[in-house]
Amino acid sequence: MSPKKTRTCVMEIDHREVSFPEGVTVLRAAELNDVYIPSLCSHKDLSPFGGCRMCIVEIESMRGYPLACSTVAAEGMKVLTDTATLREMRKEILQLILSEHPSSCLICSEETECRENQHTIRKVGVTTGCRYCPNDIQCELQEVVERTGITDIDYPIYYRGYEVEHDDPFYDRDYNICILCGRCVRMCQEVRGTSVLAFKFRGPEAQIGPAFGKSHVEAGCEFCGACVSVCPTGTLADKASKWDGEPDGIRVSTCPFCGIGCQVELHHKDGRLSKVEANLDPEINDGQLCVRGRFCMPEATHHHQRAKKPMLRRGEYFREVTWDESIDEVAGKLKGIKADEFLMVVSGDLTNEGLFAAQKFVRSALGINSIDSTARESLPGGLGLWAKLFSLSISMKGIREADCIIALGLDSRFYFSVAGVDIRRALKNGANLVTIDARDSNLASYTKHWLRPTPGKEGAVLDAIVQGIGKSNSGFKSVAKKTDVDEGLLAQAVSTLSSGENLAVVIGPTIFEYEANEELIDALTRLARRTNTTFMPLYNGANTRGAFELGVISELLPGVAKAKGKGVTLSDVIEGTATPKVLYLVGEVPFFDRPDCEYVIAQGTYYPPFEVDAFLPAASFAEAEGTLTNVEGRVQELVGIEDLPDSAVAGFARPDWLIFSRLAEKLKCSEFKYKSAKAVLKDISKTVADFPAKADRKPRRLTPKAKLPIDRHAGGSEGADPFLLVAEPAGFAHRGTDLASKVEGLEELALEEGFRLNPDDLGKLRVDSGERITVSVGKLTVTGQAKADKECPRGTVYFHRPVAYGGLEHRAELEPLYRLRKSPVKAEVARSVEKKRSTKAAPKKTAAASR
Amino acid sequence: MAAYEPVLLRNKGVENSTALKVYESRGGYQALRKALKMNPEEVVEEVKRANLRGRGGAGFPAGVKWGFLPKDRTVTYLCVNSDESEPPTFSNRVLIEIDPHMLVEGTIITAYATRAQVAYIYMRVEFHEQFHILQKAIDEAYAAGYLGSKVLGSDFALECYIHRGAGAYVCGEETGLIESIEGKRGCPRIKPPFPAVEGLFYKPTVVNNVETLCNVPHIIERGADWFTGIGPQHSTGPKLFCISGPVNKPGCYEGAMDITVRDLIEREDMGGGMLPGKKVKGVLPGGVSVGILTADELDMKMDFQDPAKYGLLGLGTAAAVVIDQDTDMRSVLRNMARFYGTESCGQCTQCREGTAWMHTIARRIEADGGRIEDLDIIAETARSMGMMPGLSICGLSDGATYPLETIVKKFHSELEESIRAQSPTETDALAGAVGH
């Protein structure tokens, strides 16, 4: 698809000759030529609505007063935008709008002085000025009123008297000040493709909201905040930053919550992060975000539980100490430590600088190789497979531009929403979508063919499709039988996909959670050989790719080279085959309980849920600058927006790389002379070929030097047990902590606990939804609550496996299952015989987790 | 005057007139057979020549409308507008009750002429019995081979569905109707693009009123020349007129468009004169949206041209409601204002806010809380809402302003007198003054 060349045309606006690109509206043409036409309902990303009627103009040879926002500009058109009649009519229209909008913030004789002195004698004004609207000074209506020159309103003021809606998370809605411009509705329908918001009722009672009086949560809202961002008034406002007022400044940064790496605009006020908006970056997110990026950043870094001070265990006490004291003690513990006595576990959410410094610290300062990262779990199938996949064409834009899309195991409501938006954009442009998912998803309603295999067989279906594309349709019989997918449907899907040229394959984290089976690997390998194919692996962890490239795994060195010498790994500790004396957790909490180690060091932004001996407070994404490597290989900048001096309130946190540097210095290692994050990045680019020396948004394909192993397991689950137990990765993890425990609104969206089964299966088991069941896998038996869920296929039991354990103490009941390496796995299910709910079902010993 | 031979209501009073057999025995479906022997362009040409103007209200020539369809289209839809929500109008209802097959036949011929593959009959939800009557007729037509994959054995295929509305006035507007069939909230679309280019499901679409389509079989059967022979040159063909209010015989009558409002009220074969003791004070002659006539203006012709001379919007639906001397014009004003205030879809500012404020003010006037300047405010609001073309997306706000503005203008002295004579109690005034 090549972009169409647009012709430049000429027209006359207010007797001035101006040029404009063919196809734009009169309003846009005026805007491009700095001619102001007032408008409240139009928005550059949305279709014309024609509701506010403010943008009326006079066009020669056109009857009446056409709208600038919906009239397409034409060669030679003569437009008048500011005649006496138009001004008069606009005033009249604006008065009608204001007759239902509180207006003391708009027209007041004392407005200017009041802003300075707040001297007004009216009651409300005494302490607050008239600032009862969160959008004051940032309001588009204020601007339009000022420019239209309204000083008085003939109509009496009618206050609608709706109750302000606080009942959904993240944003408040005060429809008393809504002007019904419909931007939010169009944003939700046209750009996001979710259609949660609609107009309700009619005439003067017309109102915005989900249809049929549902709450936003029920109606399927993704809480992406796109509606809030386009609201011209204060009707929709972020709960967290509602009264922050005008920001001091805005800086573009990268979202630190997942591997897509959306570009965000950080608003700051008084040196603190106040609010996040999407950046209009066309490469990745194009003005869109998900709930985490849009709403969770300020709370995640400003939560009252945020650990901001170095702490050491002193007898029975856990005490605040100075940085020097803590560095002395930790360095002392690490001095001369041997490889089998130590393990450092690093989160895949750290910056490149933090990750690189971590592995360098272990390898250079300690001279051992005992480092591991939870990033390994996000990338199953072995390092070889991922080395291969990262060398492919991975592109978010590629999804938008594809004409055929396969989505596997992806529900984009709260996770990777931006990918979901891109898929729906492609569909709007005529692309076809095939979903392969055992469970229902928010994409299933848009799909052309929904293939619903037995859980765990998605890879086999994908493989059959990849082999079948472009060939004559036959030979799906065995695959259909093996995967329980209808043969005809499979053939149809293949024929649909064969008609397209550009294929995009989007794989969600559920699939990566499965034990990598041969068929998935085969399918991915085959895809790797295809041309015109975009691949989009959506894995957990913001910088998983960085962790892989920078060698934060014992068997890998920076630059994807093989490391010599074996170190302790995380799975050794979890399985009990190794018990290091000292455990160093860097931004990661892979356990529910403290493991059996002599000395545990935690370095992070929140305390882990168990006792540690030393805590080193790390700077959060808002405080430390650095870079993150996204799924496409772009090295993107993370801006340190908060740079407040150390204090009891601001805390004493330090960037990860700086903590490692100070420890290394103490250990007399001379290789850590970093003065800034930029210096670390320079060092990385010296060590790793192809890695840029400063933030560079160019996508990179990996060129691995070493030949790395691919893990292969025969797919399928043996055993005669009647049910398939499926683990789904879940939780809003960031640096080892589930953000749902820190961000108030996320808690409401937090995922269900316990087991979920098809209602028919529950009926057969004679279990009511909400009662307890026992699930046995081999010798392992776990009891938990069962819930009916229509979306689960018959014969399956689903449960959520948390991606991070920080902040999730109460989820320990199913903990033994989290350690099961296999998923899906055959299981026996029975109604629980226990009389009363037993106390904690978790085992006494090291409650370890992860696969 | 030569006796008018009814065309559209010719089966009125015939026993079991809704049955297919009865309709066929009286010459039904012959026009369809004739049309299928012509090619679609010839059918369009014939209707164009007959100058069949739309009966829904705007009076746009049907054949011309069909001619706007793009030549290279592959999918075309036909929507039949049976939303009939203009207040005193009930001619569609009468047509469906008496002769549902006439509508089905007109629909099939129009679909053939416009090469539509699917026809949706959009029926207002209040038509319960009429829905069953029409559905039975459609079922009969399918069974008899008039509808389906091979219409009368030809290659022409047509599926026909009834889509029932949910009770919104604005869904009688063609793009509002299209949105409603698509399952969306009834809201008009910005034009252009017009439905002929981008209508239902964003495909070329023709929207016509029930009465318009009922004329089509007769034009095909008897020819355009016969049709243009009825009525004045600019307003050809048979037309249904409704009359209600304090007349002796309220109902739906057929005639040529050469009758006057007075004829409609007085003629023995029509309204049959006023009830004893009642005198005409005013008439809303074309549904309510065109505006009002005073008792001195009853010589207005019920055609497509004359109403403009009386300051009215147009012929409208040709459904007259008579207001007698005992009716308080303040109540009429309030009643009109209320209707538009609750039926505006809420999209365009002027319509949403303007109708609401006019309703508030009219309520205040009726409740003895009016002020003389209120009349000017209504006139002024009406002017800035819809008296000038192109001020809102659809015609609803134009339709809302004409009756209110003409009532205030033509009955100004009476309204002024009432306001001066009022002795408001505090509660009355408050009742009218607060809220929409």
Overview of the structural elements:
The complex is a heterodimer of chains A (851) and B (436). Among the domains of chain A are: 311-379 and 545-687, 3-Layer(aba) Sandwich (Rossmann fold), CATH 3.40.50.740; 383-537, 3-Layer(aba) Sandwich (Dimethylsulfoxide Reductase, domain 2); 723-849, Barwin-like endoglucanases (Beta Barrel). In chain A, helix 10 runs parallel beside helix 22 (656-666), helix 10 crosses helix 23 and helix 15 (458-468) crosses helix 17. Chain A is built from 26 helices and 35 strands. The longest helix of chain A is centred in the first third of the chain and has 15 residues, at 84-98. In chain A, a hairpin with a 2-residue loop joins strand 12 (311-314) and strand 13. Chain A has 851 residues and is an alpha/beta fold. Chain B has helices spanning 20-25, 30-37, 40-50, 62-67, 91-98, 100-114, 128-143, 174-181, 210-222, 224-228, 261-266, 329-343, 349-366, 372-387, 396-410, 412-421, 426-433; strands spanning 77-82, 118-123, 159-164, 205-209, 238-244, 251-256, 280-284, 293-294, 319-324. With 436 residues, chain B is an alpha/beta fold. Chain B has 3 domains: 20-228, NADH-ubiquinone oxidoreductase 51kDa subunit (Rossmann fold, 3-Layer(aba) Sandwich); 239-324, Ubiquitin-like (UB roll), CATH 3.10.20; 329-430, NADH-ubiquinone oxidoreductase 51kDa subunit, iron-sulphur binding domain (de novo design (two linked rop proteins), Up-down Bundle). In chain B, the strands form 2 sheets. Chain B has a 5-stranded mixed β-sheet. Chain B has a 4-stranded parallel β-sheet with strand order 3-2-1-4, with helices on both faces. Helix content of chain B is 42%, strand content 11%. In chain B, 55% of the residues are buried. The model of chain B has no long low-confidence stretch (mean pLDDT 92). The chains are: A alpha/beta (851), B alpha/beta (436). At the A-B interface, helix 2 of A face helix 12 and helix 13 of B.
